[in-house]
Write a structure and sequence with these properties.
This protein is an alpha+beta fold and about 170 residues long. The chain is built from six helices and six strands; from the N terminus they run αααββαααββββ. The mean pLDDT is about 80.
């Protein structure tokens, strides 16, 4: 999911190109980095749906995270895109910077941010289920990718699990 979230960057890099690889090779590498992670993500969603890996989530609090996509674009994607790829050291530093950002996205559990969800009318919410009194750790935060524009407190949502903390609710037919 983390690599899929950087597909727009790979698209921009493919268009811009670099002098360090044959242009067709570089475009093919960027194309692979766009298609494979997104295809895997779609496969994972489809697999979860076909296996009925559905969880009912009780909502004590829901926070809309549409602004995370904007922050992602302006704070991460555009600065990394603007890194020069004209010399080998600049190209290598851009790859290292991207690797560090990918690792941070993974460690900070921000792997759900994907601009393509926004393009297809999905929104991002962090959901906090009601506090449990079973002595287990405090609040469990979950991410819901959904076509809903609003989620009410005490609502029950059936969504498929695509990772331990990320759930997907498909559009109603």
């Amino acid at each position: 999911m983390v690599l899929a979230s950087f597909s727009p960057l790979f698209l921009l890099w493919a268009i811009r190109g670099t002098t360090h690889f044959n242009n067709y090779v570089f475009v093919a590498i960027c194309g692979f980095l766009i298609v494979f992670p997104n295809a895997f993500l779609l496969w994972r969603i489809g697999k979860a749906q076909s296996n009925s890996d559905v969880k009912t989530i009780s909502v004590a609090f829901a926070e809309d995270h549409r602004e995370h996509v904007i922050v992602y674009l302006f704070a991460i994607l555009f600065p990394v895109y603007s890194l020069s790829l004209d010399t080998f050291s600049n190209f290598l530093s851009a790859v290292v910077a991207l690797t560090i950002i990918l690792a941070l996205f993974w460690c900070l559990n921000l792997h759900y941010i994907n601009i393509f969800f926004s393009f297809f009318g999905y929104n991002l919410f962090t959901l906090v289920p009601p506090q449990r009194n079973d002595g287990i750790s405090g609040e469990e935060r979950l991410v819901l990718i959904t076509p809903r524009a609003f989620i009410r407190k005490d609502e029950q949502i059936d969504a498929v699990r695509i990772s331990d903390t990320v759930f997907f609710e498909s559009k109603k037919e």
